[in-house]
Amino acid sequence: MNMHEIRVGLLGLGTIGVGVARILLENNDILRARLQTELRLVRACDLDIETDRGLDLRDVELTTDVDRIIKADDVDIVIELIGGYEPARSFVAAAIEHGKHVVTANKALIARHGEALFALAEERGVVLAFEAAVGGGIPCLKALREGLAANRIESVYGILNGTCNYILTKMEHESLPFDVVLKQAQALGYAEADPTFDIEGVDTAHKLAILAAMAFGTHIRFDEVHTEGISRITPDDIALAGDLGYRIKLLGIAKPHGDRIEMRVHPTLLPRTSQLAQVSDSYNAVQISGDFVEHTMYFGRGAGERPTASAVVADVLDIARAMPDGTAHLAPPMAFPQAARRDLATLPMVDIECEYYLRLMVKDQPGVLAAVADILGHHRISLEAVMQKERHATQSVPLVLLTHCTREGNLQAAVSRIVELPSVEDEPLILRMERGA
Ligand code: HSE
């Protein structure tokens, strides 16, 4: 091996894979200048090696045989850009077993199988790096792991899914229904292979589970993230929230509560003046607060070929820099050494406390509001604002109530009684508010 050369093998020549190959080829000079070593893409594996990717891949061996990457003696760093749980998990595990450092953009893989893979990587003395898994091109994990290492982290708020942010922005600006905008977002290429991962909040929950574990030094507990998506939000809700001074965003929220962690993903009302509420279109943003640094915010493109590839190649550079003397002095991937990571429980959703936006569809009759308010009062829930926009003698109308801070369990108990009122029609929409974000 030429000691002034680090050899890279690529699994997956899809959108991000092409981006990575493009950086390694087009920015080779800047990479060499920063690294003082040649970074060479020796081989790329994909089921389709015939399609012209618009790149000069003459010096890159294209193969359909994954073993030519994960078991090859002439590959130092494997980049996994297949996505999804399998076969990505098996390939990454096999690459680690064969002593390869691995870089991945696969949030689903890290959220679900990260613990086993980190343990395996530690055992084999290699690195599993995943900056591109959260926030695409935004170096938010590096900030959390390194730049904020002096702090106790107090909260993490993230707009982590470009598809949902694009949909909510368009619904607001153009008063369009959800289904119409979803099709536009899919056409732009931000969406997951299974778009329900985007719109039902699963993609955000993958990313939040990773952020929370890094922020609080705990194990990744993706299955315990409370997850709601945006498919029930209507243009009316967006307009009503706007009239009340709020904007609706799909937010991932993580906070510590002693020896428990709060982790939730749901559409959230944010004051229109807050910084996160200003993040529009397909952009992502992560706000991390620490006890000494206070609020910090990271903003940028959370998806797409070039931004995501940028984060992948930054991980490759970190590993490549450390390789000559081993990688022991790199910051631990999950921000705390494996042995120091704790197993904190997740705060049950009924125990969280926040303010709520409750939208009911009700018959426009005398006494309806009094009956609803009576039930809320009985559950010790105090109201901050009430709004009903339209008057309609025959059809139901939206009645919106904003509550003061209350326990989720109390609100759920009240709503289960409110839905039994004869004047209340359809399923109520409950949205949580975050003024502190
Ligand atoms: N489907 C994701 C999004 C891609 O829309 O943000 C990046 O993880």
Give a short summary of the structure.
With 437 residues, the protein is an alpha/beta fold.
SS content category: alpha/beta
Total of helices: 14
Estimated helix fraction: 25-40%
Q: What kind of oligomer do you see?
A: single chain
End-to-end separation? 51 Å
Could you tell me the strand content as a percent range?
A: 25-35%
Main β-sheet, in a few words?
A: 12 strands, mixed
Number of strands: 18
- Poorly predicted segments: none
Cα radius of gyration in angstroms = 24 Å
Bound molecules: L-homoserine
Averaged pLDDT, please? 94
Principal-axis shape equals: elongated
Topology, please?
Elements: E1 5-11, H1 15-26, H2 28-35, E2 38-45, E3 61-63, H3 67-70, E4 77-80, H4 88-97, E5 101-104, H5 107-124, E6 128-129, H6 140-147, E7 153-159, H7 162-174, H8 178-188, H9 196-199, H10 202-216, E8 226-227, H11 235-243, E9 246-257, E10 260-271, E11 283-290, E12 294-301, H12 305-322, E13 345-346, E14 353-363, H13 368-378, E15 383-388, E16 396-403, E17 406-407, H14 408-418, E18 424-433
Parallel strand pairs: 1-2, 1-4, 2-3, 4-5, 5-6, 8-10, 10-13, 10-18
Antiparallel strand pairs: 7-9, 7-11, 9-10, 11-12, 14-16, 14-17, 14-18, 15-16
Helix pairs in contact: 1-12, 4-5, 5-10, 7-8, 13-14
The protein binds L-homoserine.
